[in-house]
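Good morning C.,

I know you're traveling, so I'll keep this short. The sequence:
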Amino acid sequence: MKDLLLKWLQTIEKHDGIPPKEVIAFNIGMYESEAGYSMYLVGGFEYSDDNDDWACLDVPTSDYRHLLLPDKLQSQTWDAVVEYCASIFKELEAEGTLATTLVKNALAITIGFDDGDLIKIR
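The tokens, ready to paste straight into the viewer:
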């Protein structure tokens, strides 16, 4: 799963480059569609520890910014899926691997299901 997530972030960086320094936070939004559980990446110019509304940004329209999660996760509950994905991103952060990706300059990184609570990664 770590490799899949890193390749996804690398694909976004390949298409979009490193975000400007004004992008201080990233949210990995999660949702369930007809195809199954997926995630997308958005960057924000604002961040608040106290108010998750900072992450209410437009969902990207480019397909490469979305990732359909593996089949093994599709039979799980939404809360189990977000907890699992958060744990993988936390491992990548603890290893220093996220610091080699397009989110390296972010002050904050969060993950959460759309309309749900955010889990802080950084």
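Safe travels,
E.
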